[in-house]
Amino acid sequence: MMNLTQLVLASHNAGKLKELQAMLGNAVQLRSIGEFSQVEPEETGLSFVENAILKARNAARISGLPALADDSGLAVDYLGGAPGIYSARYADGKGDAANNAKLLEALKDVPDSERGAQFVCVLALVRHADDPLPILCEGLWHGRILHAASGEHGFGYDPLFWVPERNVSSAELSPADKNQISHRARAMDLLRQRLSLK
Ligand SMILES: O=P(O)(O)OP(=O)(O)OP(=O)(O)OC[C@H]1O[C@@H](n2cnc3c(O)ncnc32)[C@H](O)[C@@H]1O
Ligand SMILES: [Mg+2]
């Protein structure tokens, strides 16, 4: 279908690169878009799908290579699905710690029964910048927002995300365990099937 030995990952997030490369194993080598450009495209879409496609096209254009993008985020039930596609910018670009602090504040005094949340991941793969048929795969991971951060692994909102099937936070899972069950793992399973990898 395409030369997958040279796939560029359209992400400036080191945590994503690590997880996606671990999931792909030796089948495909991901090159970071950071090798080609430090400029991050503006994520102007209204959906995870639109932003994933936008990032993939931008990376393919800059690198001249097929590109994989990951647009992801945390949708909190009590907040009507926020921060959602704005998860990275929730605290106005001040970073993971500020995002987490803002989320805890927004859910202050909200009982466990109303703290449900989903991690969402959309992967978009384009063969070239103007590809008329991007491959799209999505994954959801259901959990609950904790009252305080816990755990050192992962990145982003992981310390606040309670994983009911394991009784730990997502940041308390080993990287290998997270990569078996996360939203990103589910999306990647679908992508592997679509590409006939495995
Ligand atoms: O757009 P790129 O360059 O890929 O990097 P980014 O970090 O800006 O990525 P997004 O725009 O997709 O925003 C994703 C947000 O959701 C968070 N997030 C996504 N997946 C996560 C995960 O597995 N664990 C914790 N937080 C996650 C992440 O920390 C960001 O705040
Ligand atoms: Mg982003």
UniProtKB/TrEMBL annotation:
GO cellular component terms listed in the entry, alphabetical order: cytosol
In the Enzyme Commission scheme, what number(s) does this protein have?
Answer: 3.6.1.66
State its cofactor.
Mg(2+)
The entry's family comment says: Belongs to the HAM1 NTPase family.
The residues that the entry says bind substrate are 11-16, 72, 155-158, 178, 183-184
Q: What are the entry keywords?
A: Hydrolase, Magnesium, Metal-binding, Nucleotide metabolism, Nucleotide-binding
- Protein name (Swiss-Prot/TrEMBL): dITP/XTP pyrophosphatase
Give the matching Pfam families. Ham1p_like
**Described function:** Pyrophosphatase that catalyzes the hydrolysis of nucleoside triphosphates to their monophosphate derivatives, with a high preference for the non-canonical purine nucleotides XTP (xanthosine triphosphate), dITP (deoxyinosine triphosphate) and ITP. Seems to function as a house-cleaning enzyme that removes non-canonical purine nucleotides from the nucleotide pool, thus preventing their incorporation into DNA/RNA and avoiding chromosomal lesions.
Superkingdom of the organism of origin = Bacteria
Give a yes or no for keyword Cell membrane in this entry: no
Q: Does the keyword Nucleotide-binding apply?
A: yes
Q: Which GO molecular function annotations are given, in alphabetical order?
A: dITP diphosphatase activity; ITP diphosphatase activity; metal ion binding; nucleotide binding; ribonucleoside triphosphate phosphatase activity; XTP diphosphatase activity
Q: Which residues form the active site?
A: 71
In the record's cofactor note, how is the cofactor described as bound? Binds 1 Mg(2+) ion per subunit.
Q: Which reaction does it catalyse?
A: XTP + H2O = XMP + diphosphate + H(+); dITP + H2O = dIMP + diphosphate + H(+); ITP + H2O = IMP + diphosphate + H(+)
**Which PANTHER family does this UniProt record tie to the protein?**
INOSINE TRIPHOSPHATE PYROPHOSPHATASE, INOSINE TRIPHOSPHATE PYROPHOSPHATASE/HAM1 PROTEIN
Q: Which residues take part in binding Mg(2+)?
A: 42, 71
Q: Enzyme group, top EC level?
A: hydrolase
* Organism, scientific name: Pseudomonas kairouanensis
What interactions and quaternary structure are annotated? Answer: Homodimer.
Q: Name one GO biological process term.
A: purine nucleoside triphosphate catabolic process
